[in-house]
Amino acid sequence: MFRKHSRYKLYDDYDNDMELLGAYANMRQVQKAARERNIDTDGECVLLLYKFNLTAGKYELVNEWYYTMED
């Protein structure tokens, strides 16, 4: 059954290896985790955000952030 605390899941897709950063109840928590990951990786990461779709009963990709350091 769907649990509110895991409404969003945030992953770092590093070298094609998906690392779950956490499951979050709201976008404020997601944004905080994304900012922290961006700082931790010096701006080199791909973050994938999934949201639970109640109708479909599964998580679906809703946003991607690409961070890269400028040369």
Structure, described:
The protein is α+β, with helices and mostly antiparallel strands and about 70 residues long. About 20% of the residues lie in helices and about 50% in strands. Strands 2-1-3-4 form a four-stranded antiparallel beta sheet, covered by helices on one side. β3 and β4 form a beta hairpin. The mean pLDDT is about 80.
In short:
This protein has 71 residues and is of the alpha+beta class. It has one helix at residues 27-40; strands spanning 8-14, 17-24, 45-53, 58-67.
Indicate the topology:
Layout: E1 8-14, E2 17-24, H1 27-40, E3 45-53, E4 58-67
Antiparallel strand pairs: 1-2, 1-3, 3-4
Bulk shape: globular
Characterize the quaternary organization of these chains: single chain
The counted number of beta strands is 4
The SSE order reads EEHEE
Strand content: over 45%
| Total of DSSP H or I helical runs spanning 4+ residues | 1
Rounded mean pLDDT score? 82
- Low-pLDDT stretches are none
Largest sheet: 4 strands, antiparallel
User: What is the first-to-last residue Cα distance?
Assistant: 46 Å
Q: Helix fraction? A: 10-25%
How is the largest sheet built, in terms of strand order? 2-1-3-4
Cα gyration radius (Å): 13 Å
